[in-house]
Amino acid sequence: MHTNAADSEVTSLSASSPTRSPRRPAYFVQSPSRDSHDGEKTATSFHSTPVLSPMGSPPHSHSSSSRFSKINGSKRKQHAGDRKFARIEEEGLLHDGDREEKGLPRRCYVLAFVVGFSLLFAFFSLILYAAAKPQKPKILVKSITFEQLKVQAGQDAGGIGTDMITMNATLRMMYRNTGTFFGVHVTSSPIDLSFSQITIGSGTIKKFYQSRKSQRTVIVNMIGDKTPLYGSGSTLVPPPPPAPIPIKSKKKKGPIVIVEPPAPPAPVPMRLNFTVRSHAYVLGKLVHPKFYKRIVCLINFEHKKLNKHIALTSNCTVTSV
């Protein structure tokens, strides 16, 4: 009985239940992939997730469609924003390029720097030159000593007989560099000792370097060897010894010889002439002040002053040239 009752219930249920409709297709929710965002050319991948209701129909189809549309809309907005930002950035770069092209080129700045530096350097050099030029060296001729002065007969290169003079003298002077920030290199022209417009002896200053704010004594040897005088050397010849003069005496028999001193010879005028050259290299050859001193000394030579110092401090003139 129980078996028959169950079969009858199943039969009644199957007979009474309506015919089911065909199975509806499943709906899928698509979401954007997180794998890549590559600018404007981003490839979008989707993951499909089937959602089925127990009855075979999608219960959340409306909510899924709205969610998909929102995601796609936000994605489109994001892409549009990226394209707009890229376009703005590109326009900004173009504007920057236009501004650079409108400004001064780089070589103009380099040229301006070179010109400015040259002007500044020239101004600095002028300041150094103006500061160094007034600091002139000081030269003081002290004395001259004649060790030898001898006149004798001879012949010149052409065989003409005349008086020849041989002399040797030493000249002393003091050189002082007054520069406070530079040294000087010192040379001179030939130092000529002349008599009656004839150079009877000469010498020169050996080149030396004088440091700042210092001084030294300069000694110059002057030599003349058999210089012809052509008739003008009579005053240079020492006078002969005086001859004795006999005088008769009343008290004693015979004459008494008395030697009277001769009249002193006149001093022999001589002239000393030379130029001292001083060069200061303050900033190499760019700032190169020069100091030239012309010196002229008048000497009154006397034979009794042979091998003695003849002072020249008050007999010399020093002028800048």
From TrEMBL:
Entry keyword set: Membrane, Transmembrane, Transmembrane helix
Feature: compositional bias, Polar residues: 1-10, 42-51
Sequence intervals crossing the membrane: 109-132
Low complexity: compositionally biased ranges: 11-26
Superkingdom assignment: Eukaryota
Segments of this protein annotated with the region Disordered: 1-84
Protein name: Late embryogenesis abundant protein LEA-2 subgroup domain-containing protein
Source species: Brassica cretica (Mustard)
